[in-house]
Amino acid sequence: MNIAKIFQRLLPTPKEYEKIVLILKRDWVTFVPQVALFVFLGALPIAGYFLIQKFEPTLLATQWLPMIFILGGSAWYLFALLLFFTNFTDFFLDVWIVTNERVIAIVQRGLFHRTVAQARLYQVQDVRTVVKGPIQMLFHYGDLHVETAGLEHGEFHFDNIPNPNEAARKIMELVEGDRKYHEEKIKMLKLEEQPRITDKGA
């Protein structure tokens, strides 16, 4: 199944002629620290067990310590899995969609909170990119800021997306094309509203 058709279902009040041009998500590099954190948290109980076995092996011979260790380890792994799943949900479900009509930001906050903001292309005033530090330059990802007019939020933030300069160029092309279309449409409406001159000659 085409991925564009999948994301088409996420569009609020989609129109028949509306087509998805860009689907922007966070670069996979930005999720590596979360994976490293999960591995670190998962290794702590194992490291603790081997440390006790090496320095205080007599404690493992008691009846109560292994039970406490199992219960505590289970609770710890449950916490680590919940933290990892929450971070993965935020990472995976954050998506920015650009169509031939509008810009849509779908941002996940935790497991049960999602915000959706949108702006028409003709409302876009400025597009700029921010690439900070050697890691972003090395892996070619960064932030994209889309400034809009007439909206409460005023600006869209596309965080840690791959190739932000290319995305900015494409958005500006769409914005210019949409503005020209609306300008031509306004001209046509004005021409239609002008009174027609009829020939009153004999």
Automatic annotation (TrEMBL):
UniProt keyword terms in alphabetical order: Membrane, Transmembrane, Transmembrane helix
Q: Which residues cross the membrane?
A: 28-52, 64-85
Q: Which residues form the YdbS-like PH domain?
A: 96-171
Q: Is Lipid metabolism there in the keyword field?
A: no
Pfam families registered for this protein in UniProt: bPH_2 (PF03703)
Q: Indicate yes or no for the key word Coiled coil.
A: no
The superkingdom of the source organism is: Bacteria
Q: What is this protein called?
A: YdbS-like PH domain-containing protein
Naturally occurring in which organism (per UniProt): Candidatus Magasanikbacteria bacterium GW2011_GWA2_50_22
